[in-house]
Write a structure and sequence with these properties.
The chain has helices spanning about 45-50, 55-65, 90-100, 115-125, 140-150, 150-160, 165-175, 185-195, 200-210, 240-245, 260-270, 305-315, 315-335, 355-375, 395-410, 420-425, and strands at about 15, 25-30, 35, 65-70, 105-110, 130-135, 225-230, 255, 290, 295-305, 340, 350-355, 380-385, 390, 395, 415, 430-440, 445-455. By secondary structure, the chain is an alpha/beta fold. The protein has 2 domains: about 15-270, Alpha/Beta hydrolase fold, catalytic domain (Rossmann fold, 3-Layer(aba) Sandwich); about 290-455, Nucleotide cyclase, GGDEF domain (Alpha-Beta Plaits). Strands 1-2-4-3-5-6-7-8 form an 8-stranded mixed beta sheet, sandwiched between helices. Strands 11-12-10-13-16-18-17 form a 7-stranded mixed beta sheet, sandwiched between helices. The chain is globular.
């Protein structure tokens, strides 16, 4: 499972709608060639946010120059919870909705644990889109998964009592996943599992998973494939099931490792993909560094109601317009002495850093005009404060608050915090309209925000 403690990148959650009308929460990390992580039963994005699932692999791949797209499957995490459909077909529909919304024309697929059959099914159904397939600690038949691997077997044993003993059921599964080696981490995992899916959903998902059988599809996989046995799951017996896959997939490689991200990186590079920047040498990692002294002004620009626009324009047309707009926004930001953050590309918008409040406001207004001309109006928000810089990314409360302020703005409108207004109030050419104090998610005290108005001649 790659369970790991520590901080994770702040995900920007967006939504895709499936063909049967279910809203699926997804996020895009990084800017390089895409690797799509299909969701496991408890919600891959939800577990990532709680720092106990695939975050170590995700963060490492992003640091090596790849982008990772992951999501919460229906019934889990931040996706629509009202569902009784846990079949493989529904999981495939969730994956199709996300890749049609967020992925490029060709990408790699990474299937681990319960997500393996979904990845296999998608690779066979859409060979034109899957450039590479990575399978890690997974299975082709539910019976293999339950009968051979201790953690799922224990999970099944707890299912009948899950709704009455939900805390016990999740703690039992979490301890099995960690190999009974870290009770503190197991408690964190159990808490994330309980908030990721209901007890009823957990039981239904397990029952549906036991019926899965994609063994007959393995011979039909045409994408270059690597099968990985990661020894971090807490039991070597998982390799018994995983290794069965490789001989049944044409020309598949099999690897045992403790460093899944490194193996994936090498596999994709050997196949001819080039990440956006070289892999960071393992022996000399760059430590986090603080931003230079002074105030950083953060701009968030996000496309308004992108889901509805996608449905109206079609996926291909929307992606083309969004890419063109992204280029325009980056030009505007550069022309106003700002820096677009490459590690924080949002798919539907952009994040940028400025040292001047005046230049940041001018850039935001110009971005609003560019969005209007492109037919993709933007939410725009600015906040100022201390940030942490690390390998081209920026982190901290200032970034999160700028995002929240952006979400409050009307289409094409620029909203700024009281701090930004104070820094720029003597700037010519603009005025500020008081919008009062507003409550922002994750911020304790209400914050006053102002709408920027271009001064009348």
């Amino acid at each position: 499972m790659g369970c790991a403690e520590g901080g994770v990148m702040e995900p920007r959650i967006q939504y895709a709608k499936t063909s049967d009308g279910v809203s699926i929460a997804y996020a895009v990390f990084g800017t390089g060639p895409a690797i799509v992580f299909p969701s496991i039963n408890f919600g891959s994005l939800h577990l990532y946010k709680n720092g106990v699932a695939v975050n170590r692999i995700t963060d490492d791949l992003v640091s090596r120059g790849w982008s990772v797209i992951t999501y919460d499957g229906r019934g889990s995490g931040s996706s629509e919870r009202h569902t009784d459909d846990w079949t493989l077909e529904s999981k495939l529909g969730d994956l199709e909705a996300v890749v049609n919304r967020a992925a490029p024309d060709r990408f790699a697929v990474y299937g681990t644990l319960m997500a393996g059959p979904t990845a296999i099914s998608y690779a066979v159904k859409h060979p034109d889109r899957v450039a590479y397939l990575v399978l890690n600690n997974t299975f082709a038949t539910g019976s293999d998964w339950f009968e051979v691997i201790p953690a799922p077997r224990l999970s099944r044993q707890t299912m009948p009592d899950a709704e009455n003993e939900w805390e016990f059921a999740t703690l039992t599964l979490a301890n099995a996943l960690t190999g009974y080696a870290d009770s503190r981490l197991a408690r964190r995992i159990a808490e994330a599992l309980r908030t990721g899916v209901t007890a009823k959903g957990y039981t239904a998902a397990g029952n549906a998973m036991e019926k899965i059988d994609v063994k007959d599809l393995l011979a039909q996989i045409s994408a270059p494939t690597i099968v990985i046995h990661s020894r971090t799951l807490g039991t070597d017996r998982v390799g018994v099931v995983t290794q069965r896959l490789a001989p049944l997939i044409p020309n598949a490689q099999f690897v045992e490792t403790d460093d899944v991200a490194k193996v994936i990186d090498e596999f994709l590079r050997d196949g001819g993909l080039v990440p956006t920047r070289p892999a960071r040498p393992a022996e000399s990692p760059k430590p986090p560094t603080s931003a230079p002294s002074g105030t950083a002004i953060i701009l968030f620009a996000d496309i308004v109601d992108s889901t509805a626009l996608t449905e109206r324009l079609g996926d291909a047309a929307f992606r083309t317009k969004a890419r063109d707009l992204d280029t325009s926004l980056r030009t505007v930001i550069r022309d106003h002495s700002g820096t677009a953050i490459e590690g924080k590309l949002l798919g539907d918008g952009v994040l940028a850093v400025f040292t001047s409040a005046r230049q940041a406001i001018e850039a935001a207004l110009a971005c609003g005009v560019a969005g209007s001309h492109a037919g993709l109006p933007l939410h725009l928000g600015l906040h100022a404060g201390d940030v942490i810089r690390e390998e081209g990314n920026v982190y901290g409360g200032t970034v999160n608050i700028a995002s929240r302020i952006s979400g409050l703005s009307a289409p094409g409108e620029v909203l700024v915090s009281d701090i930004v207004r104070g820094l720029a109030r003597t700037s010519g050419g603009v005025s500020f309209e008081d919008r009062g104090k507003r409550r922002l998610k994750g911020v304790g005290e209400p914050m006053r925000v102002w709408a920027v108005r271009e001064a009348q001649a």
